[in-house]
Specification:
It is a single chain. By secondary structure, the chain is an alpha/beta fold. It has two domains: about 180 residues, 3-Layer(aba) Sandwich (Rossmann fold), CATH 3.40.50; about 120 residues, 6-phosphogluconate dehydrogenase C-terminal like domain (6-phosphogluconate dehydrogenase C-terminal fold), CATH 1.10.3660. Helices cover about 50% and strands about 10% of the residues. The protein has a five-stranded parallel beta sheet with strand order 3-2-1-4-5. A three-stranded mixed beta sheet has the order 6-7-8, with helices on one face. α7 crosses α11 and α11 packs antiparallel against α12. The radius of gyration is 22 Å and the shape is elongated.
Length: about 300
């Protein structure tokens, strides 16, 4: 079986390595020999010789990469995907892309991307591997990146039976495939991935560049004390601005819904802090109860 990887970043490179190394001993992807072909955009090169070595061939064009492929994995930021889909339409018309070929992606939003694929009539089944390492953070490809993690599969209207092939891709990489509708997925991931990204960036803006940052007790002093807590909360803000921007722009509606809920909670916290200013002892007890509730909630969720 021939699999085309359009892009070799953290996710694409890790997929290639996982399919070659089989980290969970899932067995062969197919009864026929596996051939991995990668295509890289003209402004991107493989980060290392190891990235190129994880595939059997690096194609010069998208058409060359997808020629005869049964599965095409688009490993590109969300806003770059429509242009790639346009190329795949041309490849299908020319016969380079098989009518039976299944196209999937690894981007972090689904409703918008599936709509773009549907407009072009492609056999598209969206997907997104949820890993312990954020896709916007710089990291090296790793064959074990997906082991034990959820891999969400979101079939498009023209996917046919293509979801089964994407499910095999997920299990071959050691992940746990989960079928989900696009709207539900976007709403869920807005809460646990996209809103945290926005908060990370907003915190940097508020503290390092916002109102009061130039004051005597502002960022000029604060940055000297920044350590573990600051690093943990601002980690997402240190990642790829292109990937992050595409995520927030293509899932803006759902992120705004979650942001509205967060604003209400922040207003409650502001009221608690006002009360604590007036009575620190009572305020501490109230705040401790809220912190305890948050910790207990996380522990119950595992």
């Amino acid at each position: 079986m021939r699999i085309a990887l359009l892009g070799l970043g953290l996710i694409g490179g890790s997929i290639a390595r996982a399919l070659k190394e089989d980290p969970t001993r899932a067995g062969a992807f197919d009864d026929t020999p596996l051939t991995l072909v990668a295509w890289l955009p003209s402004d991107v090169t493989a980060k290392s010789d190891g990235d190129a070595a994880s595939v059997d061939q690096v194609a010069r064009t998208i058409a060359e990469a997808v020629d005869g492929a049964s599965l095409v994995v688009v490993c590109m930021p969300a806003m770059a995907i429509p242009a790639v889909l346009d190329e795949l339409v041309i490849c299908r018309r020319s016969g380079r892309l098989l009518e039976s070929a299944v196209i999937t992606d690894i981007a972090s939003t689904k409703r918008w991307i599936i709509a773009e694929a549907s407009k072009r009539g492609l056999r598209f089944c969206g997907s997104h591997p949820m890993t312990a390492v954020s896709e916007i953070a710089a990291s090296e490809p790793d064959a074990g990146l997906f082991v034990g993690s959820p891999w969400v599969i979101v079939p498009g209207p023209h996917a046919g039976g293509g979801a089964a092939l994407v499910e095999r891709l997920a299990t071959s990489c050691g992940a746990r495939p989960i079928m989900m509708e696009a709207e539900l997925y976007d709403a869920a991931v807005a809460a646990v991935s996209h809103l945290p990204l926005l908060l990370s960036v907003a915190l940097v803006e508020a503290i390092a560049t916002g109102l009061g940052s130039d004051d005597a007790d502002g960022w000029g002093v604060s940055h000297l004390l920044a350590s573990g807590a600051w690093d943990a909360v601002t980690k997402l803000a240190r990642g790829s601005d292109q990937v992050g921007a595409d995520i927030l722009a293509t899932n803006a509606r759902e992120v705004r819904r979650k942001l509205t809920a967060l604003r209400l909670e922040l207003e409650r916290w502001d009221a608690r802090l006002i009360a604590a200013e007036n009575d620190p002892a009572a305020g501490s007890r109230d705040i401790q109860s809220r912190l305890n509730l948050a910790r207990t909630t996380l522990e119950e969720l595992g």
